[in-house]
User: What shape does this take?
Amino acid sequence: MTHHSVTRRTTVAMAALAVMGAVSAASDATAQSAAPDSPKAKSVVSLVDQAAALVDAKGKAAFADFRQKGSEWFHGDTYVFVLDLNGVELCNGPRPDLEGKNLLGLKDRNGKAFHQAFVDTVKAHGAGWVDYLWPKPGTDTPVQKWSYVKAVTVDGTPALLGVGIYLD
Assistant: This one.
């Protein structure tokens, strides 16, 4: 075997590994987290489906319902949030200060851009679970949170709707 053929084979192998790494990284970026298996998780999926149906029926007018503290949509540390696919928060019951802001770059304590993960999950799968670290309402300490997100259309705008849960 000549030096040239060894060098060429090495170059081809390195290029193949680079492509495989890029494909793996791309699928990791859109990978759907495994769903938490609990009764609370199952109720969140149901709540998201009901909220999505309300958005289908009422459009942005449903946001007033989602902001009602003490309602089925916003109670304790459970609330509905809506984000357009460009990353702009459209509705967030406990954090109205986030509405109108692009949150794609917002990262959790471990550096996970979880709003980007929401968008990626919806674009790749239509719906799914994303886990990240986030403080419970009224606290400053981030803990593991899971959000179930689903594609919706809000008055003609592609968006996603989600509800998060803390499993502790």
Remarks:
- Helices lie at 3-29, 39-58, 62-66, 114-125.
- Strands lie at 74-75, 78-84, 89-92, 127-135, 142-154, 157-165.
